[in-house]
Amino acid sequence: MKSAVFFVAFVAAVAADKIPDFLVPGKCPAVNEKALFEQQIPNHSKYAGVWYEIALTNNPYQLLKQCVRNEYSFDGSKFIAKSTGINADGNLMRHNGQVLPMPLGDPHLSIDYEGSFTAPYVILDTDYENFSCIYSCVEFNYGYYADFAFIFSRSPKLSDQYLRRCEAAFKEIGVDVSRFAKTVQGSNCPYDTQKSL
Q1: Mean pLDDT of 71-79
Q2: Where is the Lipocalin/cytosolic fatty-acid binding domain (predicted)?
Q3: What is the spatial distance between Cα 130 and Cα 144, in angstroms, rounded to a whole number?
Q4: 18: which residues sit within 8 A by CB, 6+ positions away?
Q5: Is 60 inside any structural domain?
């Protein structure tokens, strides 16, 4: 249903000759999702826990703008996701969702948050203990695609060596790393309050 709503909005935008800026002409880059997924499946339980958003590309579906903290609980088949942070109005906010295998068997996870559409969740690189590089790309009719990318860390700060690993993973599939914007994290963030949301 959410995908259908997004598609109708996309068609309406094309008809009005106003294509959203996150849609670009072309196709999603080739990613060896099968090899990545086969490597990651046995380690899904190690992916659970807290991940801080360090950087992301333009994403109109990300309602949290600062101090973004993601908490993933793994139940053996999927992750229950609780994301907290500060929204564009400066208010604390909680966003609930799940990260789970694609229902039609595609070799990657999918992310499904309330108020958004289900999208691919491809972990390009992670060591499970320090960093994670996540990529999501969806192709649409009329030769357009939308892609979103995230860099996560187990702590509010990510060391340069892990940041460079994510940059290398994104560059390898042709993502321009200058598209990333840093997410505000640090001592001014109300992490203790966020835990209780």
Answers
A1: 97
A2: 48-185
A3: 34
A4: none
A5: yes
Distance CA 20, CA 94 (A): 26
The reported pTM is 0.89
Contact 2, 118 (CB under 8 A): yes
Range of the domain at 135: 23-196
> What is the domain-level CATH number for residue 189?
2.40.128.20
Element holding 54 (H helix, E strand): strand 49-56
Do the domain assignments include residue 13?
no
In a domain, 91, yes or no: yes
> What pLDDT, in 10s, does the model give residues 10-25?
444 444 457 788 899 9
Side-chain half-sphere exposure of 84, counting CA atoms within 13 A: 14
Q: In whole angstroms, give the CA distance from residue 38 to residue 44.
A: 11
95-117 pLDDT per residue, tens: 999 999 987 889 999 999 998 88
Count of structural domains within the chain = 1
Give the integer Cα–Cα distance in Å for 68 and 93: 10
